[in-house]
Amino acid sequence: MHIVDVARMRELEMRADKEYGLNTAILMENAGRSAAKLLVQYIRERQRRPLNECELLFLIGPGNNGGDGQVMARHLAAEGARINLYRWKERQLICEGHEVPAERIDEELNAVLQRASYVIDALLGTGRSRPLPDDMRALLARVEQERARRPGELLVVAIDLPTGVNADTGEVDSGSIRADLTITLACPKQGFFFFPARAYLGELLVGSIGLPEALEHDLSDEMLDAALARRLLPPRPLESNKGTFGRVMLFCGSPPYPGSAYLAGSAVLRSGAGLVTLAVTPDLLPIYASSLHEATYVLLPSGEPSEQLAQEQARTLLEHLSGYRALLIGPGLGRTPAMRTAVLALLDGLRALPEGERPALVIDADGLNNLAGVEQWWQQLPPGTVITPHPGEMSRLLGGTKVSGGGIDRLQVARHCARDWNLILVLKGACTLISEPGGRLRINWESNPALASAGTGDVLAGMIAGYLAQGLAPFDAASLAVYLHVAASKLVSQRCGDAGLLASDLLPQIPAARLALLQPT
Fold it and tell me: Which residue, among 266, 325, 267, 253, has the nearest Cα to 294 in the 3D structure?
């Protein structure tokens, strides 16, 4: 499902008219019919309410968004819903087909609001960038007051986007109200994935305006959703053995952070890889052997940290890499001069390997932190490397440039850095971005505050390595891992809410999330 900005959406609509004869009236009819169908499904399947018992108030604006709303209202009326229309610009109220006299509009509008099950926001669409008029803010405030009075009984449904949300930047007018459900049309808009807009959309459904698929051929930005993730799942043939699903080597963990390697290694296996090996010093072996029974181990030289020891550790690990499809460097390594030497020596050795013998590489956490102080660090990486920074790590990689956890600045950072550094970038955040050097970008829609917990990033890094081992291309492996990582967290949150999740809680839910993805929709 492609993501567009406002200019690209307008271009698609103009081309639809010019090349296919799909004028505004046709697109509007398609949009309203599709939005009505999606809302009917939502009411019947999710809300489990008979449509003929539902009363809806449509707030109709003066432009195309209002036109979409009027078409939608007509189709819902034909399905048996009780429909009221308030045309904001004309200040006209129509209740179930009958126009209310001007002197009674305020009284009747309040009465409708107090009865309504749904308010449909079709006031302003993607073209609005100026502040909302005061009377429109007042109207939305009345809706918000009524929803607060009847929580759970009155839902707000936005058509295309909530009024006052900037579809390009994610900025929100002070008069906007949060939607419980947004039915966007044709393509999700890029501003949806950045804050504060992301918090205003509620649940997101995507309706059709009948654009021919050929018009989207050149679009490179995608929403990471269930349909896309399902296509990325690696096959599980019957005639398999553990070698079929690949081997992963981990260079992770240190005495202060032993849990990182456990979490990442467990995630490798829970993602479906055939075998995981931890490269550890003998003093850490008892910790991992007693907790991660399914792993194998490479013992690294130990002793006082030094450049010589670091070189020996890197050499030992490289000697054992034959037959491994993926290598994860970073979680829990710690940041010391000796560790930086080991990471750089390991990268030198990887670049020297023939392409067919070099495992796919994921670098996370302290792997990135140890690189951050190296001039032009990205030149140390083999082609196709996946890096997985959170905003703080990304800022260090950029030499101190601040990167937000959810703002629109992330979009250009992700695009430019993947291209300039020639790697696959997983920029973590509430809506994680995955970008690759050729310009493709995927944004994960689902988010879960429960993932703001120590160790969840180690799980994600292990999942990416696991999917690389199963043969996915780096961009696809990262995308699938990001999707299933959040999906697994949602399964945990169904039981314990959005606080208190432990990273280890995710592990048994990874295969459960994969199984849920395979179920018929």
Answer: 266
Grouping H, G, I as helix, E, B as strand and the rest as coil, residue 13 is: helix
List Cβ neighbours of 28 (8 Å cut-off, separation of 6 or more). Answer: 64, 67, 68, 71, 209
Which candidate, 503, 469, 482, places its Cα nearest to that of 260?
Answer: 503
| Count of Cβ atoms closer than 10 Å to residue 138 Cβ | 11
Segments in the chain below pLDDT 50: none
Q: CB–CB of 432/413 below 8 Å? A: no
Q: Are strands 92-95 and 82-87 parallel, antiparallel or unpaired?
A: antiparallel
Are residues 355 and 495 located together in one domain of the fold?
yes
Query: Can you give the pLDDT at residue 128?
Result: 73
**Total structural domains in the chain?**
2
* Host domain of residue 353: 247-516
- Cis ω for the linkage preceding 196 (within 30 of 0): yes
Residues belonging to the chain:
521
Q: Are residues 212 and 260 in the same domain?
A: no
303 domain-assigned = yes
* 392 domain residue, yes or no: yes
The residue behind tokens 């994960």 is: 444
What CATH number does residue 504 fall under?
3.40.1190.20
**How far, CA to CA in Å, does 252 sit from each of 271, 287, 317, 452?**
18, 13, 12, 21
The one-letter code for the residue type at 3 is I
301: DSSP letter? P
Task: Look up the CATH number of the domain holding residue 196.
Answer: 3.40.50.10260
Which helix (H) or strand (E) is 55 found in, with range? strand 55-60
Q: Are residues 254 and 205 in the same domain?
A: no
- For residue 183, CA distances in Å to 82, 125, 178, 192, 299 come to 20, 12, 13, 12, 55
Q: Is residue 254 part of a domain?
A: yes
In a domain, 224, yes or no: no
- Within this chain, do residues 139 and 212 fall inside the same structural domain, yes or no? yes
Question: What pLDDT, on the 0 to 100 scale, is given for residue 521?
Answer: 67
Q: Give the rounded percent of residues in the chain with a pLDDT score beyond 90.
A: 93
Strand segments, DSSP code E, in 381-488 are 386-387, 424-427, 433-435, 441-444
User: Which of 179, 181, 162 lies closest to 170 in space, CA to CA?
Assistant: 162
Please give the pLDDT value at position 187.
Answer: 96
Contact (CB, 8 A) for 94 and 100: yes
Report pLDDT for 88: 97
CA 89 to chain centre: 37
Which of 201, 219, 237 finishes a domain?
Answer: 219
Same domain, residue pair 291 and 172: no
Return phi, psi of residue 132, to 5°.
-70, 145
